[in-house]
Amino acid sequence: MTAPYACQPEGSRGRRWPERMSTFRSPWQRDRDRIIHSSAFRRLKHKTQVFVEHEGDYYRTRLTHTIEVAQVARTIAGTLGLNTDLAETVALAHDLGHPPFGHTGEDALAALMAPYGGFDHNAQALRIVTRLERHYADFDGLNLTWESLEGIAKHNGPVTGPLPYALAEVNAEWDLELHTNASAEAQVAAVADDVAYNHHDLHDGLRAGLFTEEDLAQLPVVGEAFAEVDRLHPGLEPMRRRHEALRRVFGTMVEDVIAVAQNRLASLQPQSVDDIRTMEGPIIRFSKPLYQNLKAIKLFLFQRMYRAPSVVVERRRVTEMLNGLFPLFLNDPAKMPEHWFKAAEAAADETERARIVLDYVAGMTDRFAIQEAERLL
User: Fold this and answer.
1) d(CA 348, CA 339)
2) For the residues of 222-244, what is the DSSP string, one character each?
3) What is the mean pLDDT of the chain?
4) Nearest to 272 by CA among 1, 51, 8
5) Interval 70-81 mean pLDDT
6) Under CATH, domain 26-173 is a member of which superfamily?
7) pLDDT at res. 167
8) Sign of the CA dihedral running 255, 256, 257, 261
9) Is the pLDDT of residue 144 over 60?
10) Whole-angstrom distance, CA of residue 209 vs CA of residue 232
11) Which helix (H) or strand (E) holds 131?
12) Burial 190-219 (b: 16+ CB within 10 A, else e)
């Protein structure tokens, strides 16, 4: 039984291109399934989370991260009486627009695209699901519902200021009400993203040897988790000790989000999803004390992991690859596959051509970008 402030399938604003209702799936189950079967979703398997995909079998990729986010989103949404299918859909789609090499790739492409309207992975995800996936007879994209598109666009909050061109194009065709909050389900997906990466980046950083359990003992939340494991299980084998501690960190974050949301929902008494959209600030968030503790953890990860010397060397290397590939394809589109070449040749101007090249490069997996760089550069 969903709550009155949850998104209801029968209340969906529908699809840009009308389709017959499925006899056995809700609109958001259908959206979820289309995302899972999309080409862009499959390519997440070989895209960076923090470590470049080939660096080790145990590190998270963008796909395994996405699956973890979807699991957290379903748990939180179900506990709060929200629509779990919509929360899962937004979670599964939230990183579809990421280019190869994670945030390093995004930074490189944003700089390269600065003369042509910039680059933003959230906006690129919308471009993928509304234009670039071309499998259906009646439309480009996946023809997702309004609520799924809204969630992809606004899961991190209202979008103000100049819009990335990819978002502006979608919003011009179908108003996503960017000035309002997203649904509670989309807000859950955003918080689930924070929960997942705060947890698994600690795990992956330990496995990579960038820091030790003794380093983590100095951090809020994490230190307490290790201390509790040592009290309950003295002498526990190191890998089990690590897992037991970090799953407690994971649980602390999830329980905090649920408790805060339950308190806010009981206090504010929203009666519809539009009440959620017009509230001052998000309904789904961490408590202020935990938020401050997570800031300390993120600062630690930034200094010891995201900007670790070995990671910085790899960042420079992959940035050079993209800095070579993008202008190469822009100046000589014939080096792209035939259908991309034809699209670039038919572009009305350089900006349109650059955006087509961006779509091609941003869609690459880590390993394909590396192969193309070795072949062409």
Assistant:
1) 16
2) HHHHHHHHHHHSTT--HHHHHHH
3) 95
4) 8
5) 98
6) Hypothetical protein af1432 (1.10.3210.10)
7) 97
8) positive
9) yes
10) 26
11) none
12) bbbbbbbbbbbbbbbbbebebbeeeebeeb
- Return the half-sphere exposure (C-beta side, CA atoms, 13 A cut-off) of residue 329: 27
Q: Give the residue with greater pLDDT, 158 vs 312.
A: 158
Exposure string (b/e) for 251-270, b if CB count within 10 Å is 16 or more?
Answer: ebbbebbbebbeebbeeeeb
Locate 327 and state its tokens. Answer: 């202008």
In this prediction, residues 12-25 reach a mean pLDDT of 93
| Residue whose pair of structure tokens reads 């103000």 in the numeric block | 160
Measured at the CA of 67, the angle between CA 104 and CA 368, to 5 degrees, comes to 45
Q: Which comes out higher in pLDDT, residue 147 or 55?
A: 147
Give the position of tokens 């009666």.
Answer: 271
Tokens for 261?
């949301």
Q: For 135, left (φ over 0), alpha (ψ -120 to 50), or beta? A: alpha
Structure tokens at 172: 């011009």
Tracing tokens 């506990």 back to the chain, one arrives at: 79
> What ranges do the domains of the chain cover?
26-173, 197-308, 311-376
